[in-house]
Design a protein that fits this description.
Layout (H helix, E strand, L loop, with lengths): L12 H5 L12 H21 L3 H18 L5 H24 L3 H18 L2 H17 L3 H8 L9 H17 L3 H17 L15 H15 L2 H14 L5 H17 L3 H15 L6 H17 L3 H18 L1
Length: 328
């Protein structure tokens, strides 16, 4: 993994000017916060391209540890809170890597720690990030009521329409997984309405860059698939892929796998297999994150069930195993 140092070593230049200060630890200030955030931004960019993996998780936890060590020497209470906020975001990044790898038990521990740190920072946006992942982790564990509750648990979602839209979108997934068609479609409508009111000019953290019209379309495809609306899911997937930026490679791969499932559910087996093949090209030989492996696993199971030609299903599954082993 292309890791980067989170902090550079302090220099001794001040000692030449004020010798008395040489024996005292320097006060941590804004420059140190900026350095920490640069490391966090690098991890966020790596995740967008490659997806969650153990090396990224370890790097995020190392960043959090650096931040917590620095907060002990914060120059002011305001700086201390900003550093706690960065520590919360690093810890949430570690949790996200575990969620993306579908390692929910590890993710839960990180999320509990991140929520505590966000509280110390009094940072409601960092709290939203944590609750967003709580909703995803709960969904992976088939705890759909908890997923719905987690998606609605933070106050910032009531103040910024973009965050509100994300919360409604996560709620829609929870409702659809629980079989609540009316609740899922209502939440999708609320997510679209909130998104239409969101200003692109409001400063937001880099981790939120993934969310917008394209991601909402990708989530719509997931919800529609879960509700059994394959044509609507296919249409939403096509629109999502037309809009998801190229740098979000993992997200494009997930949307492509979702498109393949929607095509398969309409019995367009050959097209579905060709679409699913593109997932491996998109990831370009990198390890497949757990969520992506899981979605391709869903495609495999549905292919075996729905394909009228068992030979086609067997051929694609052989290719899938071969590509998977190479990617790993």
């Amino acid at each position: 993994m292309h890791r980067r140092n989170f902090l550079t070593a302090a220099t001794g230049t001040t000692a030449a000017v004020v010798p008395l200060l040489a024996t005292r630890p320097y006060a941590v200030g804004t420059t140190d916060v900026i350095r920490l955030r640069r490391g966090l931004d690098a991890l966020t960019a790596l995740d967008a391209s490659k997806g969650g993996h153990e090396a990224l998780e370890r790097a995020a936890l190392a960043g959090a540890a650096e931040a917590l060590e620095l907060q002990k020497r914060a120059a002011s209470q305001r700086i201390r809170q900003r550093i706690f906020s960065v520590a919360a975001e690093y810890t949430t990044a570690a949790a996200w890597s575990a969620v993306d790898a579908r390692r929910c038990a590890r993710a839960q521990g990180h999320l509990n720690r991140a929520l505590y740190l966000a509280g110390m920072a009094q940072d409601s946006i960092a709290e939203l990030d944590v609750w967003n992942l709580h909703a995803m982790a709960a969904g992976q564990q088939q705890e759909h009521a908890r997923a719905v509750s987690a998606a609605q648990a933070t106050a910032i979602a009531r103040r910024d329409p973009l965050f509100a839209s994300l919360a409604h979108a996560r709620t829609a997934i929870g409702h659809s997984n629980a079989g609540d068609r009316q609740g899922a479609l209502r939440s999708l409508g609320l997510a679209e309405e909130a998104l239409s009111k969101a200003s692109p000019d409001v400063p937001r953290p880099l981790w939120m860059a993934f969310y917008g019209p394209a991601e909402l379309l990708a989530i719509t495809a997931i919800v529609r698939t879960s509700l059994g609306d394959a044509p609507e899911a296919e249409a939403a997937s096509h629109r999502a892929l037309a809009a998801i930026p190229q740098r979000f490679r993992r997200n494009r791969a997930l949307a492509t796998a979702q498109l393949a499932i929607a095509q398969l559910h309409q019995r367009d087996v050959d097209q579905a297999c060709a679409t699913a093949d593109r997932v491996f090209s998109l990831m370009d030989g990198n390890d497949l994150p757990g969520r992506l492996r899981s979605r391709l696993g869903d495609f495999c199971r549905d292919l075996i069930t729905l394909s009228p030609n068992i030979g086609v299903a067997r051929e694609w599954n052989d290719r899938y195993r071969s590509e998977w082993s190479q990617a790993r």
